[in-house]
Amino acid sequence: MRCCRLLACAVFALALTAPASAQLENVGNISFPTSAKPEAQRHFLRGVAILHSFGWKQAIAEFQLAQKAEPSFALAYWGETLCYNHPLNSQMDPKEPRAVLARLGADRAARAAKAPTDREQGFLNAVEELWGEGDSRQRRLAYMSAMERLYTKFPSDDEVKTFYALSILSAASAVDDRTSRMNVKAGSLAMDVFKRNPNHPGAVHYIIHAFDDPVHAPLALDAANVYAKIVPAVSHAIHMPTHIFIQHGMWTNVANQNMRAFNVAKELWEPGDVPGDMAHSGDWGQYGFLQLGDYAGARERIQAFEWMAETTKNSRANGALALVRARYIIETEEWKVQPVTESASNETILANGFSAVKTGDMATAEKMEAMLAAKAKAAPGGAAAPANPHAEHGGAPPAPAAGGGNPDAGKGVRIMHKELQALIAQAKGQTDQAIAMLKEAAQIEESMRPPNGAADPIKPSHELLGEVLLQAGKPKEAADAFETSLLRMPNRARSLMGAVRAHAGAGDKQRSAERLGLLTSFWKGKPFTAPTTDAR
Fold first, then answer.
1. Distance, CA of 458 to CA of 259 (rounded, Å)
2. Which of 449, 393, 385 is nearest to 214 (CA)?
3. Cα-to-chain-centroid distance, residue 317
4. Do 410 and 476 sit in the same domain of this protein?
5. Kindly report the CA angle at 152 between 146 and 153, in degrees rounded to 5?
6. Residue 382 sits in which domain range?
């Protein structure tokens, strides 16, 4: 708290001398001139900087202080309207934003009259479109069009440019654009701002979102390295660089950065808050510790989730706890058969099924397979379930379910079902059948969005295929499967372990040694012994 008081004093001093811009010590550096008086501008600048990092609760507080200082300052209400919905992973529920706009003025004309410049009117007009009539998709596209018009009028304005970039990312999510064209356009706009102001929180943040896939992630590494340092006051900003670190297999960064993010979110949490930032950063942080082989660190993350589930009484916290417990079993291979209820998560059932196969409890394995089969059959192929590891992340209030459908919904549970089916078949000596099932699972996984976070499903199908092929005495095919897994998820520890063994078994000692060297460069767990040429 003392740090926050010192920061507030520093920002206040800066705002008095330079109300249009400020180096905001803990939230980045922006320039956003407005018509506001100095006190309102001070809070507004900090609110916008935090908004760029999706620090919703903190930003709302600043915008409301700006409104209190100057009740007719239109952009203070503009900013607050953008704090109630995650622009990429929600349905943009307009209820609360419309209530904010109503506080500014009774109708659109009355509100526009309080924006004294063309630029301020342009920002306000854009959110009038976003929170106007129509469904979420229509409103997000209208918002992007409005921001494009504003950008055309003010092409050199970095705040216009960054918010326009974010509007493109939001529209890309709304239309499920899988060509990457919209993301690349948004990323190029943000990169232009980054060149001039590398400490701009929106520029670095939106570069990461724009290039958050295995192909484009290298383009965002510089921005991620900067963002990891410049916004220590906002949990989401601390976490977000790990979207790029995880796709480079930078496990120490992934683990430690997410621990920091979790702790900041924990400090800010109050009863009634959605624990989104805690859940998401804790989830990814545990994955980082597991890839390092730091199983004690991974267990500590489980304890943190136990605290979170007990304290917050939130369903998402309970779901996240089940996920990290199941992931721990799969990644460590510390097999443990436990009682499982019908309401158990897919990951819990999978971990229990794997444990049952590995410990010879085939009756339980068959029961878990039947449970996954039922879940796979019931999975709504058109329902809007989160399809990737960072869906719903951030602390914005949850939104209603989407009605537009999600092409990836249900695929995860079908992959898990085939994986458990395959292990059961392998245990029964039906090796060819097991391999065929895992190839089908890999095909399904390849039809989903490219991986951009912790493994989802928790056991990558290509990795499991490699393990089964290796045990079947097919090291060359196994090596190909492990390399595919590593192409999709660089430096994943168990895929590297498999690749070391498979390449050695196939007679490629040099490639095996290279993979072993990479593994040992970060592995902190039990020493991994180099294999002989025996593939099994």
1. 20
2. 449
3. 16
4. no
5. 95
6. 335-395+405-445
Instruction: Say whether both 177 and 45 belong to one domain.
Output: yes
Are residue 421 and residue 493 in the same domain, yes or no? no
The span from the CA of 426 to the CA of 210, in Å, is 41
Of 232, 256, 282, which one is at a domain's C-terminal end? Answer: 232
Domain assignment present for residue 327? The answer is no
Residue 23's φ and ψ, nearest 5 degrees, are -85, 100
Q: Give yes or no for a cis peptide into 87 (omega within 30° of 0).
A: no
- The owner of tokens 């292990």 is 423
In a domain, 23, yes or no: yes
323 assigned to some structural domain: no
Spell out the per-residue pLDDT of the chain, length 536, in tens. Answer: 443 433 333 343 343 333 454 445 689 999 999 999 999 999 999 999 999 999 999 999 999 999 999 999 999 999 999 999 999 988 889 999 999 999 999 999 999 999 999 999 999 999 999 999 999 999 999 999 999 999 999 999 999 999 999 999 999 999 989 899 999 999 999 999 999 999 999 999 999 999 999 899 999 999 999 999 999 999 999 999 999 999 999 999 999 999 999 999 999 899 988 898 999 999 999 999 999 999 999 999 999 999 999 999 999 899 999 999 999 999 999 999 999 999 999 999 999 999 999 999 999 999 999 999 999 999 866 333 343 434 444 444 333 333 345 678 899 999 999 999 999 999 999 999 999 999 999 999 999 988 889 999 999 999 999 999 999 999 999 999 999 999 999 999 999 999 999 999 999 999 999 999 999 999 999 988 767 544 44
Cα distance between residue 535 and residue 506, in whole Å: 7
What φ, ψ does residue 284 adopt, rounded to 5°? -70, -35
Contacts of residue 219, Cβ cutoff 8 Å, sequence gap at least 6: 187, 191, 207, 211
* DSSP letters spanning 444-456: HHHTSPPP-SS-S
Specify the residue for token string 């004309």.
Answer: 109
Task: Specify whether 207 is located in the same domain as 83.
Answer: yes
Taking CA 210 as the corner, what is the angle to CA 208 and CA 212, rounded to the nearest 5 degrees?
A: 60
Instruction: Say if CB 11 and CB 24 are below 8 A apart.
Output: yes
Backbone angles phi, psi at 24, to 5 degrees: -90, 105
Look up tokens 């499920």; give the residue: 176
Q: Is residue 116 part of a domain?
A: yes
Give the chain's domain count. 4
The reply to whether 102 and 180 lie within a common domain is yes
> Are residues 424 and 366 in contact, defined by beta-carbon separation less than 8 angstroms?
yes
Length of the chain: 536
